[in-house]
């Protein structure tokens, strides 16, 4: 990955991890708070229930004059009875406990419930229930929540890494396409620029201008203009151009004349049979449409072959005797930056532009190609 991709990857990964961690931490805090509240209520009601049961036994023993039976309490609860003089007559109190009246207290990690329900029956003023189970349960809950947060965070980091890779994949593909496109455009520009430089340098040295020199300059200039037109369409394809009523045959004839020098340089013959057909379309886009098709036919045709152009009943066909397109590549040939072959350069936008113009103006396009035998495109105009 280049520096830009690395920064994008780190930014996405960091943002995902931070936001996910905050979300997990919030969920953990909410769960801990809810469970803590539930445990506190459970402890309160458990202590209150044990105190009420013991108070009920005291009252019943006093009324029936029966002996006070010992109440069985859970191991995590300590119970004490305090008489009217403030002395413990049964059970035990936690250390440093000082009678503060009735109610629910927390002292040194213990939850204490003091009840005056005995109403001094049998001389018992208070029932005290005590437990430190809540503190232990909260520590266990904290450890559980912390473990879940750490475990979830680890899983989240792994998921974030995988998602970041998946997120970067199309970006990486697009960057590779752009890099390849720039390299291809640079290569395509190099050929006509080199030819122009050589032709003008030779003419200046000889101080004479031959027909061949002018032809080379003309061909190179047209190649540069074709590249410029394609790049302009890619950048400004959404701009509104005024449509005009155009005879397709006239537009095709202009394109044929335009590419005559390039055909002559490769000794390629153009066999054209054109009928009049009127369509409403911006002339620049129609020229770009035919220019890409004719230019490709010339580019991918061997020397001394023939390119056949036909326009009859609103159907235009262009057929060459070139290298053809492999069957498995034909489905992607109209996609931007896709090339059917590495033969003779190109940067993979010509047929994409053709398809875009056809889609915009309702022109049906068909492709028939056989490797090493040639390619035929058919356009059905509305």
TrEMBL record:
Pfam families: HATPase_c (PF02518)
Transmembrane segments: 12-32, 145-164
Transmembrane in keyword set: yes
GO cellular component, one term: plasma membrane
Span of domain Histidine kinase: 184-382
Key words of the record: Kinase, Membrane, Phosphoprotein, Transferase, Transmembrane, Transmembrane helix, Two-component regulatory system
A GO molecular function held by the record: phosphoprotein phosphatase activity
InterPro entries, A to Z: BphY/WalK/GraS-like, HATPase_C_sf, HATPase_dom, His_kinase_dom, HisK_dim/P_dom, HisK_dim/P_sf, Sig_transdc_His_kin-like_C
CDD domains: HATPase (cd00075), HisKA (cd00082)
Catalyzed chemical reaction(s): ATP + protein L-histidine = ADP + protein N-phospho-L-histidine
One BP annotation, GO: cellular response to phosphate starvation
EC number(s) recorded for this UniProt protein: 2.7.13.3
Protein name, as recorded: histidine kinase
Organism of origin: uncultured Sulfurovum sp
Organismal lineage: Bacteria, Pseudomonadati, Campylobacterota, Epsilonproteobacteria, Campylobacterales
């Amino acid at each position: 990955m280049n520096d830009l991709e690395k920064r994008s990857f780190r930014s996405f990964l960091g943002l995902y991890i931070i936001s996910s961690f905050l979300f997990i931490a919030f969920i953990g805090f909410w769960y801990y708070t809810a469970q803590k509240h539930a445990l506190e209520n459970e402890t309160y009601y458990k202590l209150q229930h044990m105190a009420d049961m013991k108070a009920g036994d005291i009252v019943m023993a006093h009324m029936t004059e029966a002996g006070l039976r010992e109440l069985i309490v859970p191991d995590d609860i300590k119970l004490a009875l305090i008489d009217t003089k403030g002395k413990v007559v049964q059970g035990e109190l936690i250390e440093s406990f000082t009678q503060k009246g009735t109610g629910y207290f927390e002292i040194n990690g213990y939850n204490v419930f003091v009840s005056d329900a005995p109403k001094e029956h049998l001389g018992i003023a208070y029932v005290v229930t005590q437990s430190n189970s809540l503190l232990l349960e909260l520590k266990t809950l904290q450890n559980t929540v912390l473990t879940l947060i750490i475990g979830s965070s680890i899983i989240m980091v792994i998921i974030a890494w995988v998602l970041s890779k998946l997120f970067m994949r199309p970006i990486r593909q697009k960057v590779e396409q752009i890099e390849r496109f720039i390299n291809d455009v640079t290569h395509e520009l190099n050929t006509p620029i080199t030819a122009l430089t050589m032709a003008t340098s030779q003419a200046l040295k000889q101080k004479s201008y031959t027909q061949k020199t002018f032809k080379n300059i003309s061909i190179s200039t047209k190649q540069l203009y074709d590249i410029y037109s394609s790049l302009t369409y890619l950048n400004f394809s959404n701009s509104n151009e005024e449509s005009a009523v155009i005879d397709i045959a006239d537009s095709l004839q202009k394109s044929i004349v335009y590419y005559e020098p390039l055909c002559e340089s490769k000794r390629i013959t153009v066999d054209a049979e054109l009928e009049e057909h009127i369509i409403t379309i911006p002339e620049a886009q129609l020229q770009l449409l035919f220019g890409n098709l004719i230019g490709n036919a010339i580019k991918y045709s061997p020397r001394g072959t023939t390119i056949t152009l036909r326009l009859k009943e609103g159907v235009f066909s262009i057929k060459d005797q070139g290298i053809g397109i492999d069957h498995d590549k034909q489905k992607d040939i109209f996609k931007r930056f896709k090339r059917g072959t590495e033969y003779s350069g190109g940067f993979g936008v010509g047929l994409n532009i053709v398809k875009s113009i056809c889609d915009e103006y309702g022109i049906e396009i068909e492709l028939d190609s056989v490797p090493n035998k040639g390619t035929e495109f058919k356009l059905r105009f509305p």
